[in-house]
């Protein structure tokens, strides 16, 4: 682990990831969700007290518990492999051979550098080679990988890789356009900017196919 705090701050402020996988410890699930909530609750209490907040106030009494439950059960629930959605796939009996696009999938994630929200939309496409996937499963795959401390580049790649495995084809693409509150609400405080990332596999590496996909989602960004 790098000890240089200036270097670590630079990585975080510039939203650089040093790992293609989420950096999760091997013992991450050795304790129950309830135990995690109790531990996080105490940590949140300590943070609020250190900041000078009065936790005897009715408005704040339940905040440590609410935050702990939110971390474990909701916004970081995608860390738990037990919650991974089953990708229901079917034979392409109707022989649909064109591009299928699921666009405007809402993304709610959390920047792993500042633990602030990432909010945007994912656009996902694939070309069947004999297998199709339920439409809602595409949304659930996006949601699963988004609900963890993330960087957007990694999230985009994980969505594509998961669908490639489920569908048995390389012909999968994903574009995410999202706002990072660590940029919008702190630091440079630029409320207008958003970040676009993409991952193109198989036939989507071809310029014509990629352009067709981008035309479907009406994204003007050039790749």
Automatic annotation (TrEMBL):
Ligand binding (Zn(2+)): 111, 114, 182
A Gene Ontology biological process term: one-carbon metabolic process
Catalytic activity: GTP + H2O = 7,8-dihydroneopterin 3'-triphosphate + formate + H(+)
Domain GTP cyclohydrolase I positions: 40-217
Keywords assigned: GTP-binding, Hydrolase, Metal-binding, Nucleotide-binding, One-carbon metabolism, Zinc
GO MF term (any one): GTP binding
GO cellular component, one term: cytoplasm
Statement: the UniProt record of this protein carries the keyword Zinc: yes
Enzyme Commission no: 3.5.4.16
Coiled coil: none
InterPro entries linked: GTP-CH-I_C/QueF, GTP-CH-I_N, GTP_CycHdrlase_I, GTP_CycHdrlase_I_CS, GTP_CycHdrlase_I_dom
Highest taxon listed in the record's lineage: Bacteria
Pathway(s) per entry: Cofactor biosynthesis; 7,8-dihydroneopterin triphosphate biosynthesis; 7,8-dihydroneopterin triphosphate from GTP: step 1/1
Pfam families: GTP_cyclohydroI
HAMAP family: FolE (MF_00223)
Entry-linked PANTHER family: GTP CYCLOHYDROLASE 1, GTP CYCLOHYDROLASE I
Subunit structure: Homopolymer.
Family recorded in the similarity comment: Belongs to the GTP cyclohydrolase I family.
Protein name per Swiss-Prot or TrEMBL: GTP cyclohydrolase 1
Classification lineage: Bacteria, Pseudomonadati, Bacteroidota, Flavobacteriia, Flavobacteriales
